[in-house]
Amino acid sequence: MKSGNIEYKTAKNLLGELRKKFREGNEEVVKIAELRRLEQGGRTMEEFVQEFRRAARESGYKGQFLVEEFKRSMNQTI
64-73 vs 45-59: helix axis angle to the nearest 10? Predict the structure, then answer.
C-alpha cells in the first residue's frame, strides 16, 4: 500500500498511522469527551475526585464549567 512517499507493509501499519494522524491536534477534544463521560458510579468520593482532577487537568477546562461538570458527574444522592 502506498500513501504519498510512505509505504506500508500491512494494513495494520496503515491503520495505526491513520489513528496517530487523526489524534494529533484532537487530544484536547478527546480529553473533554472523557471528562463529559465521567461519572462517580460505585467509586468512593475520594477515588472519584482523583479521577475527576486528572481528567479536568488534561481537558483544559477551568472555572464555572468545571464546577458544573463535577456536580453533574457525581452521584446525585450526595
Answer: 140
